[in-house]
Amino acid sequence: MKQNLKRLLCSAVFVILPIQGWALTAGQTTSTAADNTKVNKGDASKQAPTADKGKNNLSDRQVMAHIRRDVVHDKALSTYAHNVKIVSSNGKVTLRGPVRTDQEKQTIEQYAKKYAGDMNVTNDITVQADKK
Fold first, then answer.
1. Is the overall model pTM greater than 0.90, yes or no?
2. Strands 92-99 and 85-89: what pairing?
3. I need a surface site. Which of 18, 73, 74, 132 has the fewest CB within 10 A?
4. Using an 8 Å Cβ cutoff, are 95 and 116 in contact?
5. Per-residue pLDDT reduced to its tens digit, 68-110
6. Are 129 and 100 a contacting pair, CB within 8 Å?
7. Which CATH number characterizes residue 130's domain?
8. Quick check: is 31 in a domain?
9. Alpha-carbon torsion, ordered 105, 107, 109, 112, to 10 deg
10. Domain count for the chain
11. Between 58-73 and 102-116, two packed helices, what is the crossing angle to 10 degrees?
12. Residue 38 CB neighbours (<10 A)
């Protein structure tokens, strides 16, 4: 009897959770998922700074981690802003990717300057309005 009850509960969980998840996402038509596919194609360029092209020393990794932490913890930023590329090489930080507003672009740049210094940040972030 106990085993039948356990099976019934497990079956209910496997049926209810996907339905509940669908119900939560079904009404979300106002925002689209961040898609940086086109932007990522630019990383194929030999000159484009990417995390795997740098020396990846400890101080560069720490700078990137601090900036990323501040960006992700800022809930006022869009998903696009949370996914911006942050690359540090020899103390120089490059920011790349799309954001929704000029304010987001400036905010991320300020986070980068906080850890890398004013003269060590290249802001290649682009502003792309939300397509509805």
1. no
2. antiparallel
3. 132
4. no
5. 999 999 999 999 999 999 999 999 999 999 999 999 999 999 9
6. yes
7. 3.30.1340.30
8. no
9. -140
10. 1
11. 140
12. 8
